[in-house]
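For reproducibility, we list the full input for the flavin mononucleotide complex.
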Amino acid sequence: MKTKLTELLDIKYPIIQGGMAYVSDAALAAAVANAGGAGVIALGGRDGAWARAEIRKAKTLTDKAFGVNIVLQAPNVKELAQAVCEEKPPFVAMGAGNPLPWIDGFHQAGIKVIPVVPSVKLARRVEDAGADALVIEGMEAGGHIGTLTTMALMSNVIPQITKIPVVAGGGIADGRALAAALIMGAAGVQIGSRFLISAESPAHKKVKEKIIGATDTDSVVTGFSRNAGVRGLKNAFTEKFLRLETAGAPTEELNVLATGTNRLAVAEGDLDNGFVQVGQSLNLLTRMQPCAEIIAEIMRDARQILLDAPKIAL
Ligand SMILES: Cc1cc2nc3c(=O)[nH]c(=O)nc-3n(C[C@H](O)[C@H](O)[C@H](O)COP(=O)(O)O)c2cc1C
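The corresponding predicted structure, in tokenized form, follows.
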């Protein structure tokens, strides 16, 4: 399949595996890249040495496109950016902060830049600043979220962005959603949650099983009233957090409570004190499959739906 995204990254299929802190490492990113998508190593919570080692490892595991994801609010963002500029993965994705000051530096290092944006305003600004593509991520997504849905973002942003590919993410997990995004004018999709439960994902087995057992209404958003929403599965941690949030607890207290909870879940399998971050496409997350199988299934279904589309209305 050819889109502006596949051409930009020289990939077979218009699918980016979203960076997931403490989940997406070199092995997961390379598995996605070797299957024809674009893999992403998440640098959230990591240091420069880890970033260098994983980028080098990914280069030994694949000769296809992969990138890294930098959370711009990370205290060590400069250290990470320097490591990335020196190791030169094909592209860098950036979320949770202002990507504008970083674009030129990565370009000078020969790295393509794909910011994740939550609004029309920031989308326009990153396009004007020379980003190579952008990801719009709706609040259906797992992890840190904005306030708009994927449909609202596709409706509002895509017609405004004419020069670069727009990739849609959040609640997208199958071929129907890829077909829908392409019809909405997206150049591809970014998928996190489905790859979180893939065979190559290092997430704890208990986390994968918990997600597989969950259904549509099982996720909640913590921190929404503080402009810092994070989506994941309801559990003892989210109940405590939301009780304190509703009671008006200071944001600092909530931040302390939440710190380290993603890692506690995905790395240690603590389903009570950890926070299993995952999106809303829960009924579609039914099996632990190899990335190559996930991508082949999504592409097969998207193609069939696009072929059948004229029969729907014409
Ligand atoms: C466990 C988890 C961790 C995540 N960590 C990050 C991150 O570190 N940086 C980032 O930009 N996005 C992060 N995300 C968002 C994903 O990159 C992706 O955009 C999102 O998962 C897409 O929506 P979906 O979960 O419905 O597929 C994370 C998502 C999950 C589920």
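The longest helix spans residues 291-313. The two ends are 24 Å apart (CA to CA). Both points were considered when choosing residues for closer inspection.
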